[in-house]
């Protein structure tokens, strides 16, 4: 099965210290990458063969083709 890598998502930090954590694909889900964003910083990312999920910690705005989500703290 081929994974669609065309969809991007954007994370905009609304406060200092927002963490963007990539989780692996496969039988065991594990953390494999972490980025720390400060207020106003933006990260543009996409899912890959290795990354199946992303966890966001902190106050951020997540923008996808499905809409915008604001985290709550």
Please characterize this protein's 3D structure:
With 73 residues, the protein is mainly beta. The chain has one domain (8-70): Sandwich (Immunoglobulin-like). It contains no helices and seven strands. The protein has strands at residues 8-13, 18-24, 31-37, 42-46, 51-57, 60-64, 67-70. The protein has a four-stranded antiparallel sheet, with no helix packed on it. β6 (60-64) and β7 (67-70) form a beta hairpin. The chain starts with 7 loop residues before the first strand and ends with a strand. 10% of the residues are buried. The model has no long low-confidence stretch (mean pLDDT 85). Oligomer of 11 identical subunits arranged in doughnut-like structure. Belongs to the MtrB family. GO terms for molecular function: RNA binding. This is Transcription attenuation protein MtrB. Keywords: RNA-binding, Transcription, Transcription regulation.
């Amino acid at each position: 099965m081929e994974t669609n890598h065309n969809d991007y998502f954007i994370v905009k930090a609304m406060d200092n210290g927002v963490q963007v954590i990539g989780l692996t694909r496969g039988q065991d889900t594990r953390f494999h990458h972490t980025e720390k964003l400060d207020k106003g910083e933006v990260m543009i990312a996409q899912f890959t063969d290795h990354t199946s999920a992303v966890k966001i910690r902190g106050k951020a705005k997540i923008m996808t083709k499905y809409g915008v989500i604001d985290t709550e703290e």
